[in-house]
Amino acid sequence: MSMSGVIVRRLAVIGVGLIGGSLARALRRAGVVGEIVGVDLDRDNLVRAHEFGVVDCGAETLAAGVAGADLVFLSVPVCAIPAVVRDLIPHLAPGAIVTDGGSVKGEVVAACEPLMPPGTHFVGGHPIAGTEHSGVEASFATLYEGKRCIVTPTPRTDVTALGTVVRLWEAAGSEVVLMDAEKHDRLVAAISHLPHMVAYALVNAVEGYDRFEEGILRYSAGGFRDFTRIASSDPAMWRDIALMNREGVIEMMDHFAAYFATLRSLVAAGDADGLERFFRESKESRDAIL
Amino acid sequence: MSMSGVIVRRLAVIGVGLIGGSLARALRRAGVVGEIVGVDLDRDNLVRAHEFGVVDCGAETLAAGVAGADLVFLSVPVCAIPAVVRDLIPHLAPGAIVTDGGSVKGEVVAACEPLMPPGTHFVGGHPIAGTEHSGVEASFATLYEGKRCIVTPTPRTDVTALGTVVRLWEAAGSEVVLMDAEKHDRLVAAISHLPHMVAYALVNAVEGYDRFEEGILRYSAGGFRDFTRIASSDPAMWRDIALMNREGVIEMMDHFAAYFATLRSLVAAGDADGLERFFRESKESRDAIL
User: How far is A59 from chain B (nearest CA, A)?
Assistant: First the structure.
């Protein structure tokens, strides 16, 4: 491999699952990374990542994994990111950049940035991509192609480190959007966290509806199943997200509840024109993102 | 075609779109119907239905369409069903059965049953099947295969007429469930009408969230698009459903709102165990219907 296009000579991927594994595959395919070292608490997953060629080697410890890395990518549960950063800091090479793929940014950036020793850098990131599957088996090189990746610099962020992170995501095929971490958290509260809260509550409400002796969910057709697919997401992950982005989630839940109450009053009043207008506006917004 | 398996000699389909066209195709394929006459306000649609062989002939008027039919199937907007029944009654053959595919049953059955002259019969029905497409082009013979069809007899329903309707849906491949119309309306309020209300409100809430100058929906990934697909449904149809099943829809909206408020208080309290339990119960219910 020619080193001319290399952005990162030694990349450490902490957590080699769908997100970390796909980034490793994408960057290798793009020819922008020298060596890839993987670290994973799940030893079997790490062995498979090595066998599949997703990483060049698996490190036994965080210390060994990040040693000599010029860039460390964290794809671990979002609640765990600050603790992992704290643990790996003593082993970082001079000039190393630490970045992440966590789906909450405000608390993560606020916790991690002040930890970094002089000459090392933290840059927050969040690729808007994923599937409902997990593990290195689920990873693929084109996961990020044509997707947006939000990178959340602060006024203190090193411009060169920021440029490296941006170029990496671009090499993976993403369109990079720079955004304040606070704004990011409000945005994902709206387009991702709120829908999950709604889906979880909807399934529990329908299941808990006790007018029928028999389980009414068995009458559900494809529409209900599609609509509630995201309620099958990992409960521990969503617990963490709800806790980490509490303010944004609460704000959007209240915002939604107000619209839902408006719709309820249109139904209760039998307001045909108002109902059709409400549904039509929604359909037009929805159709615009098809 | 042998007439030995024939359940209906002359079938009139009023509204030859996805629902009516698919039933016609399925019954013809099953060899249980002699002649199929179509009626449709959309003349072009009716011409295509004839060209495609979905109907043997298209009738110019409701009177001509139902003349001599032993079974009339109504697949017209649910609000229009009682008026159409009123219009076709003078032209019904003795012994004729009128049935429908409307997604609200209580008001429809209560309005239509008393209209029927002696010796003719109304039986309410609702196949739990469909796609987001419409028109006779969207119809196909296997739409009802393996799906449930709810038929809603009353204490006054003629048993022979009921048996004919049940055998028709079974011939189309459906599993028929007999249910009180009121219970049906509560059930579809839960598994279909509530999810639509939630999806419409969600899209409007997210679109109306004005913290960002730019349209935040453009950041949405596949999960949001899948989740909100049903918000692209026909506004006029859903206006009618919300009006016709107002009581059931309101009850389920309030039921959902209570669960949503519980989840909101778990988030606000930062109750990690409570959140994980809420999400896990939902995931278990959802995974059970995969």
Answer: 32
Taking the CA of residue A56 as centre, how many other CA atoms within 13 Å lie in the half-sphere pointing to its CB?
A: 12
Query: In this structure, are residues A245 and A185 in contact, taking their beta carbons and an 8 Å threshold?
Result: yes
Confidence band of A209 (pLDDT split at 50, 70, 90):
confident
Chain B residue with CA closest to A256: the answer is B205
Residue numbers in A near B195 (CB within 8 A): 202, 223-224, 227-228
B231 and A283: CB-CB below 8 Å?
yes
Task: Using the structure block, give the residue that is written with the tokens 């529990």.
Answer: A204
CB pairs under 8 A between A and B: 285
Please state, as a whole number, how many other Cβ atoms lie within 10 Å of the Cβ of residue B178.
12
Instruction: Please list every residue in chain A whose beta carbon sits closer than 8 Å to the beta carbon of residue B274.
Output: none
- At residue A2 the predicted structure's pLDDT band, cuts being 50, 70 and 90, is very low
Is the predicted pLDDT of residue A1 greater than 50, yes or no?
no
Q: Would you call B183 and A212 a contact, using CB atoms and an 8 Å cutoff?
A: yes
pLDDT at B4 over 70: no
Separation CA B161–CA B75 (nearest Å)? 18
Residues B103-117: what's their mean pLDDT? 97
Are A285 and B217 inside 8 Å of each other by CB?
yes
CB contact under 8 A, A191 and B263: no
Distance of CA B179 to the CA centre of its chain: 15
Region B138-142: what's the mean pLDDT? 96
Contacts of B198 in chain A (CB under 8 A): 198, 202, 260
The predicted structure's pLDDT at residue A116: 98
B148 touching A (Cβ < 8 Å): yes
Please give the Cα distance from A233 to A231 (Å, whole number).
5
ipTM of the complex in this document: 0.87
The pLDDT of residue B225 is 81
Amino acid in position B198: V
d(CA A152, CA B24): 57
pLDDT at A290: 66
pLDDT tens for each residue of B231-278: 988 899 999 999 999 999 999 999 999 999 999 999 999 999 999 999
On chain B, the residues whose CB falls within 8 A of the CB of A182 are none
Domains of chain A as residue ranges with CATH: 8-179 (3.40.50.720), 183-287 (1.10.3660.10)
DSSP result, A154-184: -TT--HHHHHHHHHHHHHTTPEEEE--HHHH
Place of tokens 């849906």: B169
Q: Helix, strand or coil for residue B123?
A: strand
Interface of A with B in 241-260 (CB under 8 A): 242-243, 246, 249-250, 252-260
Which range is least confidently modeled, B23-37, B44-58, B203-217? B203-217
Quote the pLDDT of residue A210: 67
Interface test with A, best of B279, B280, B283 (most A CBs within 10 A): B279
The pair of structure tokens assigned to A94 is: 């001079």
Residues of chain B contacting residue A197, judged by C-beta atoms under 8 Å apart: 260, 263-264, 267
Look at residue B213 in the predicted model and tell me its pLDDT: 54
The burial class, CB within 10 Å (0-12 / 13-18 / 19+), for A41 is exposed
